[in-house]
Specification:
The complex is a heterodimer of chains A (917) and B (125). By secondary structure, chain A is mainly α. Chain A is 67% helix and 5% strand. A five-stranded parallel β-sheet of chain B has the order 2-1-3-4-5, sandwiched between helices. Classes of the chains: A mainly alpha (917), B alpha/beta (125).
Chain lengths: 917, 125
């Protein structure tokens, strides 16, 4: 016999255990020894997703639709795979901007909009209240049923019980008290509740063990394993149908929509956002959670179908509500301990959900609804209050009580018309309205505040009309005619067959129209008009959150002046002066300032203060408060766009920049080399010009001097006059030769020579050159000998140019050898396809270091000699250029004192070469 | 007493013209064809003035000028440099090394004679 007091004591004791865990968790967190800093706790706490709805409702749904309960768990399993993509980004944004709730998130994304924050809060409260009422209903029902143990009596309709005798009301109040204790003992700048998370993780474990225990009891205790249950059920035609998938479009439609709903809810429900995002201590925990959490869901669903079938077999007449099978089956088999454990498990699931959900909602109500309102009104001079942290806590506590009472009210009004799952889906469909604004805002910079407001309002209105109001109508709260004729009797507006759309279940129908309206309005309004400055900057910070760190960019968007003396008291009023001072001192130390007095109130500090405040009162209110004490200079749209362009394009361009800079490096190296070549050429040209000038001025000097001498003194003796005129004539010829050779050189170098190429016998060239210089050799009494073979191959070249080369070499040789004893020998030989000419003399020779220089322009071998050689200094350079033009080579071999040999080669005129010519 | 002029140039025809001009003006003339010979003859002949070409075999005119100016015993020797390279830097270098004047080739014979006389006259005064 389970006495009522036993159940009450057990319940209170269990809540006490949860509270103790939370207390320890908070204490450890304060000491910096977190007990929740591991991925298993994180994954378990995520299982707050599984409420009494799962605990009792899944069996109920399985009893009526068979495997139709599954989409609610398939959805989260599917999206868990996407979490590393979506959830990670949400978490990063939340941590970066110290976001406290989903309302804060959306408001912050769209320019820290108070309107949007308030709107999301209203939608969340209205949408989630039915869900809370569902928990109350389940806990209350399970309590009532257990109270009648061992008889199985379904609870009376709550409407039939006077409010003050309704145990649900007391359950609601007790839970409100606990929630206040869990969530609002003190105000935290980051809105994190480590103790609560620890308690939730424990709670998740309890409900899992309890559910698996009852599942095992039914499957293996009452029946003989899975096979036995399914076999027996298969014999009953109605039950057999539950185990198959009905093959029609409506079923596929609801599977799809339910899966989608569950996918969105597991992220967007305020409590999921609270646990999964706000309470997340380490992004890396997500990596384990993406498989641990689905694993949890699989385990808790393992026994749903066996329990449902077992219940239907045990209670075939329908007198027992399938939502209660989990509890009533152990009771029917007189297992009172298990029944009590199951009740505790259900209580666990219900309280876990209520605590987290109401904490999350109360934060939203306080930060995004009440505070903005209070800060805006004029009649209560809020800005004179020294410490507002007490007020903040008061608001939150009030909100918690109010929300639970709202849940209770809904339970009284509409609770009986729906099964557990139906009520849950209403909430799911409501929070699904946040999806376009939230997901769009994270991945699309074009989404604007107006678009988000329009989308949420439109989606929420359709949800209200097609799902919530019908739920009131079904419970008799509104006239039933509303359901069938719509507003004003217009059939097209029939709430659950909007515009004649039928063939869907009500959730799918509502989801379809509400999301269509929501997404349509969001996109259309966003695209119609660009957002303002703040929106645009926030959009970039959110969408590109992985690209830049907070410090880099956020402060770029702020310009103005502030005083530490203004900021500190402001923060102190909301967080309490001591906490605020401690936070500022930490900031000061981190920024290298010794004390608060040294702290410079720059953009960084203002940003720090604002985010500190955002943790307590939400981004939108924080912005209003901070801007009340600092002088802000608004940035123009152009400036923001410039900053954004720089910030967001840096990544994209950095690759191109690298590429370009590599190209630039190469180009500049090439340029440098080219420039050096140019300089070198320029220097050579300068030298050349200077040398030519010198060479020209020298004969001119003689010519001018003698001309003037003759001009001034007509009485000069005839012999002397003749001598002087002879010098003038010789120097004039020298000048002419020089001019010709300079021009010749320039022509060869610029490639403007008209080469007259023919097949030439080199022997003829040598003989003709020898004949031309014969007089010169004779005058200086120098012997010239030729060694020519009988027959040589022909070369292809310009005859006159080759004669020029030979004449140059012969006249050089004869110039340098001593008269009378000197000799010059010319030898022609063939080696392979090259002919070689050597001009050897017994002159003074050329020093090794000068051998290369004699081929340079104006570098005569003169420096080594006492007397200046005759000639222009261009003969050898020109000769070498000619030989090289025909594919040959010219060089000199010499030992000082033992003569010199100038040699050159020329290629034989082969068929290929002849053809090429 | 007639003053002595040392002509230093490696171009025989220029030497002939300078020798003629200086003798016509009554100067005693000595000739050197390269830098080393020039230095030897400055020591041995003790000329009053040197007409010194820049582009010389063995030691160029700048070196010769520097050597003469580095020798205190030769402090009275005047130097007029002759250069066929008209660059300002060449002229400036010569003056910096202690030359008393310069002439650019080809020169006006009258100007050269005037410059030689002027340089020696100033020295006398």
């Amino acid at each position: 016999m389970l006495q009522g007091w036993v159940i009450v004591v057990c319940s209170i004791a269990y809540l006490g255990v949860l509270f103790a865990i939370a207390w320890v968790g908070d204490k450890r967190a304060d000491q910096g020894r977190s007990i929740i800093a591991n991925p298993y706790i994180y994954a378990l706490s995520l299982a707050v997703y599984c409420t009494t709805w799962t605990y009792y409702g899944s069996v109920g749904r399985a009893a009526s639709t068979g495997i139709g309960f599954l989409p609610i768990y398939i959805g989260p399993t599917l999206i868990a795979a996407l979490w590393l993509f979506v959830m990670l980004k949400i978490i990063r944004i939340t941590k970066t901007h110290r976001i406290t709730s989903i309302a804060d998130f959306i408001a912050s994304r769209y320019g820290k909009s108070q309107l949007l924050g308030g709107l999301v809060t209203v939608v969340a409260v209205v949408g989630v209240v039915p869900y809370i009422s569902l928990q109350l209903k389940a806990v209350s029902n399970s309590f009532t049923i257990l109270l009648h143990y061992p008889d199985i009596v379904m609870p009376a309709h709550s409407a039939a019980v006077p409010v003050l005798q309704d145990n649900t009301l007391y359950i609601a109040l007790i839970l409100a008290t606990f929630t206040i204790l869990f969530g609002t003992r003190h105000l935290d700048a980051t809105e994190r509740h480590e103790g609560m998370v620890a308690a939730i993780a424990f709670e998740s474990l309890v409900k899992l063990v309890a559910f698996v225990a009852v599942g095992a009891f039914v499957t293996f205790g009452i029946y003989d394993g899975f096979g036995d249950i399914f076999e027996r059920a298969a014999r009953v035609p109605r039950l057999a149908a539950l185990m198959t998938f009905e093959n029609d479009a409506a079923h596929y439609g609801s599977w799809t929509s339910l899966t989608l709903l569950a996918m969105l809810s597991v992220t967007l429900l305020p409590r999921q956002f609270q646990i999964g995002v706000v309470e997340n201590v380490n992004e890396n925990h997500l990596r384990k959670a993406i498989w641990l959490f689905p694993l949890y869901l699989i385990v808790i669903n393992l026994f749903v179908l066996p329990i449902a079938l077992g219940g239907l077999l045990r209670f075939p007449d329908g007198g027992v509500d399938a939502d209660t099978f989990v509890l009533t089956l152990p009771m029917a088999h007189r297992n009172e301990l298990l029944a009590l454990f199951v009740y505790i498990g259900g209580l666990s699931a219900g309280t876990g959900m209520i605590i987290v959900e109401t904490i999350a909602l109360s934060t939203m109500v306080c930060n995004d609804l009440v505070m903005p309102g209070l800060l805006r009104q004029r009649w209560w001079p809020l800005h004179r209050e020294r410490d507002l942290s007490g007020l903040l806590l008061g608001i939150r506590r009030g909100a918690i009580v109010a929300i639970l009472l709202l849940g209770y009210t809904y339970f009284r009004a509409a609770g009986e018309a729906y099964a557990l799952v139906g009520i849950g889906l209403i909430s799911f469909a409501a929070v699904a309205q946040f999806a376009p604004a939230l997901i769009g805002g994270m991945f699309w910079k074009g989404g604007t505040r107006r678009g988000a407001v329009a989308g949420i309002v439109a989606g929420f209105a359709v949800w209200l009309y097609t799902l919530l109001l019908p739920s009131f109508a079904k419970s008799g709260w509104l006239p039933a005619a509303f359901l069938h004729s719509g507003v004003f009797g217009i059939e097209l507006l029939e709430p659950q067959r909007l515009f004649g759309l039928s063939g869907m279940d009500e959730t799918t129908h509502s989801l379809f129209w509400s999301l269509a309206a929501n997404i349509g309005a969001y996109l259309w309004v966003s695209l119609a008009r660009r957002g303002d400055v703040v929106e645009t900057s926030q959009a970039t910070l959110f969408v590109d959150v992985f690209r830049h760190t907070q410090a880099q960019v956020s402060t770029q968007f702020w310009r103005g002046s502030a005083q530490v003396g203004d900021l500190l008291p402001l923060i102190g009023r909301f967080l309490g002066p001591a906490r605020a001072r401690a936070a500022f001192e930490r900031y000061a130390r981190a920024h290298g300032a010794d004390s608060l007095d040294d702290l410079h109130a720059d953009a960084d500090l203002v940003h720090f203060a604002e985010s500190l405040l955002a943790g307590a009162i939400g981004a939108a209110s924080a912005r209003v408060m901070v801007s009340s004490v600092v002088k802000e200079e608004p940035l123009g749209m152009d400036e923001v766009m410039n900053i954004l362009d720089e910030a967001s394009q840096v990544r994209a361009y950095s690759r191109q920049v690298e590429q370009k800079s590599r190209e630039l490096e190469i180009a500049s190296r090439d340029l440098r080399e080219a420039n050096e070549r140019m300089r070198e050429l320029d220097r050579l040209k300068d030298d050349f010009v200077s040398s030519v000038t010198h060479e020209l001025r020298t004969p001119l000097t003689s010519i001018r001097a003698f001309s003037e001498i003759l001009l001034e003194d007509p009485r000069t003796e005839l012999a002397e006059r003749k001598r002087f005129l002879g010098i003038i004539s010789a120097e004039s010829q020298r000048l002419t030769r020089l001019v010709n050779q300079v021009l010749d050189m320039a022509k060869i170098e610029s490639g403007k020579v008209d080469w007259q190429n023919t097949e030439i016998d080199l022997r003829v060239v040598i003989e003709q050159s020898a004949a031309a210089t014969q007089a010169l050799f004779r005058d200086r009494k120098v012997a010239l000998s030729l060694e020519l073979p009988d027959e040589v191959p022909l070369v292809c070249a310009d005859r006159d140019r080759l004669i020029q080369v030979m004449l140059n070499l012969l006249s050089n040789a004869v110039k340098f050898v001593e008269p009378a004893t000197g000799w010059v020998r010319v030898r022609l030989s063939g080696a392979g396809d090259m002919l070689r000419v050597d001009v050897e003399d017994n002159g003074p020779g050329i020093r090794a270091e000068d051998q290369a220089r004699v081929f340079e322009k104006f570098r005569q071998g003169g420096d080594a000699l006492t007397s200046k050689p005759q000639g222009t200094g261009l003969g050898l350079p020109i000769s070498r250029q000619i030989v090289e033009h025909f594919g040959g080579r010219m060089w000199v071999e010499s030992e000082p004192g033992r003569g010199a040999t100038f040699s050159f080669t020329l290629p034989v005129c082969g068929p290929a070469r002849a053809g090429a010519q | 007493m007639s003053q002595k002029i040392l002509i230093v140039d490696d171009e025989p025809n220029i030497v002939i013209s300078l020798e003629f001009l200086m003798k016509r003006e009554g100067f005693e003339v000595a000739v050197a064809a390269d830098g080393e010979a020039a230095l030897r003859m400055v020591e041995s002949e003790r000329p009053d003035l040197v007409l010194l070409d820049v582009m010389l075999p063995k030691r160029n005119g700048f070196e010769v000028c520097q050597q003469i100016r580095g020798n205190p015993k030769l402090s009275g020797v005047k130097i007029i440099m002759l250069t066929a390279k008209g660059r300002d830097t060449e002229v400036a270098k010569g003056m910096a090394l202690g030359a008393d004047g310069y002439m650019t080739k080809p020169f006006s014979t009258r100007e050269l004679v005037d410059k030689v006389k002027a340089t020696l006259d100033i020295a006398r005064a």
